Please model this.
Amino acid sequence: MGCPERGSINALLCSILIVNQTRLFVLAYLAVYPATVLSAGDSGPVLHLEPGDVRDGVVRDRTGNGHDARVFGTRRVAVGKGHALEFDGVDDYLVVPDSPQIRWQKFSIELWADPADGSHHVVSKRFNEIRQSYLLQIDQGGRRFYAAVLGSDKSTENWIELRRPPRSSRWSHYAFTCDGRWLRLYINGVQEIFKPVGTLPDIGRQPIPYINSPLEIGRSFYAPKWNWYRGRLARLSAYRRALHPEEVEAIYRRGHAVTSVRSRPDTRSRPLPKKRPRPPASGSLVLVRGGRAVATIVVPSPATYWTRQAADWLQSYIEQASGAKLSIVDDRQQASGPVISVGHTRLARDAGITAEGLKWDSGRLAVRGERLFLIGRNVKPAFQSARGRVADGNCRAVVTFLEDYCGVRWFLPGPEGTVVPPQQTIRVASPLDRTVVPAFAFSGGRFPYGSTGHWLDNITPAAIANNFRHGIAATTGGHTYYAMVPSELFAEHPEYFALIDGKRTAKGHHLCSTNADVRKLLVRGVLEQFRKGYDVVTLGQEDGYRRCRCAECEKLDKYRFRESGRSWLDFQTHVLPDTPCERLFLLHKSVIDEVHKVHPQGTVLLFAYAPTAWPSKKIPRWGKHVWVELSNQEPEVIEAWKGRAAGTTGYVYWFDIQLPMGMDVHATPSEAARRIRNLHRNGFLGLYHFPETNFGFQGPVIYALGKLMGNPDRDHQALVDEFCRGVYGKAAVPMRQFFTRLYRVHEERLPFHLRQGKRWARWLTTSDLYLLLYSPEVLDGLEASLKTAERLAASPRSRGWVRHTRDYFDFTRRLTETVVAYRAQQPKSTAESRVRLRDSVDAFNRVRLRILNYGPEEARRWFPGHGHFCNWLSGGGQHESKVYYVPWQTRKPAVLKRGVATLAIGYGGGPGYSFVKEPLTIDFSTPPK
Model:
């Protein structure tokens, strides 16, 4: 098997794997994070004060390290089931004498506090008249959280600041961590913000200077005066290391006697529900024995398109697995022996096997005697064709059988991503009567397991098995104004379009919300979709909304974003909830009411996006045939919409390569599992999202995500194990190590909630992103795992997919090294540093050209999402409309003719987009200025 050198941890893991592969995740995790790292040892607090437990003017250090605090002033107060100290903001404070143990370079400070309004310095260690070695400040009743460490120049404050709305409760848990490279702030167990110490990538080389001064709690000095803390304090602990995010959350979850927060378990990692044991089978129905066909496939006469397609899939995959080709006959013929009935056959009807009560594309598997019934809901006749993009329940039943009884797996898009294990005998347990109901009615947006491109939700076995399909006839995705009121109408009807800056304009496709003909066109557009057979039709305004300023529109609401002077992030968080864009809601309500006069059973999917993200104040209920598609899935938004519509779906931005995460990991398997479970618990019926490329890094995530959309209670780690075993074979362990390390780095350094638009750090560019995540030790660890996998991969399939991950890793490594070289030669460039930078850019461009030059057949077999990646690699920082929507094969000749020298990567070139310009755009053929 080619195990590593004897005596190493990898050799031990390799030998264990040979004996038992069922513990793949545990083995990979221990290889990346040895047990010594996980043990507590001396990692506990070096200082632990309970200020409410003051005795004789002293608060004892409960760690036994002797860092007792002398109390000056303050008042001990009973709170909840405990005690705290109350600081008056005038002259109350605590002092801990100086000690080497509190002169930290890496540290964490966590505390429970109830600050009053005002500016309050909670913890400080003085360095001189105007600087603190470290400082922690909470202002304005918890609305501002500020911390800083002093730079090695003894002047620069490396600071981090968080501003947030007023607290809903008084007591909060605050934590500040510094690992020598990064500062992080947490409130109530959640990491809210992070920032580098110094400038990327040259961080962590600035030791914090100290003098012989005490640690002071409740005050700090900035010449010429003292600043005092006013409020209550219940606990303060400090560690000589940076706590991990899960440790901070665990401390918060333990609560404190003075707070309303009580010790509670981490519900995010609670055990999955136990599976209900299936009744023991009393026998089995043999379908294939010894590689010979025993059963016959029976379909209805006449068979619908998708029923016949399901039967063809069944026949094909059974033959691939066993070598036996089962005959397909219709139910007018008498089939002898065992039978597999597919769809609504006479046999099913006579046996009382129906799809009654099933929803969406649910399927049913049942055995009666020598007959296996695979049946589900038929889609409407309008979608019974190859172009009918709605999944059929009969297909669901067949695909479930192929997975559960033939072992077929569709791990990755394309022919090389399907695994069909050989087996001479295929049988199914008897008795059997099982219904398979996916958790979500649809997964739209991008369709990674389709056969005709990500834009078309064509139905394949892989799409159904992995739940990237429409299980109902629905139009989803939001912006419908473009098609329903086309901009070509402006020439004859400028009154349809918004009045902006004193004139009607079609630019941006903004409409006049009170124009009666606009309303009629929207009604006609929705009805047209219902007449095509759709059960759910979307209604939503254009992207980049700007309001019409005619008098009739303006009097309907107080939505005034442009005049507010606020950023959109600030406006949508603090202003929009109270001043929603009622003109759009009122227009959409009138359209829906008119539509329901003609088509009362049709469901309209209302797009809640940007100006309509928060619910209307004028429309409390939308009716039993209106769903809402939330583009913002923050808990407070979900709560605000509850009970207002008959159903909820989500427009989910993860995996969108236009956004700041770009070509990197948008979610880890654990993060995807938590989010899917949360959305399902909140009643979401469907998702519109963007899994379109980067299967080299995100393949396990997208596969696990698909399975979780079918059943959110599945074990996501087991799904990743299954993926690695199925895709990489003998290279499974090192590839599992690779992904464990990759995902762990993302969870620790940039957790999921901080990758979202609302909380994305404004200083964090795409270049900084790679410097944040891919430090040298991370890249070296990933490289080591990948090299081991390359050595162990034993089949063409496993070698091909390891090579696919190698492409993404080489891109990541070379891009990171290029940015490091560019930052290293700033602010003063030398001839030597310029040569190093040119060499780094050349190395990156060689990787870029290697990927761009893959042909269509290579991409089809081994590079799902290749076109999206190539467009991003050659995007030049242009707006996505110029590149993203153009097929790569159309752009390829011109891109390769131009070459990639001086060509930026990514889209947009501004805030909110993913791109890198310098140093890729530098022309090294000309001398520097």
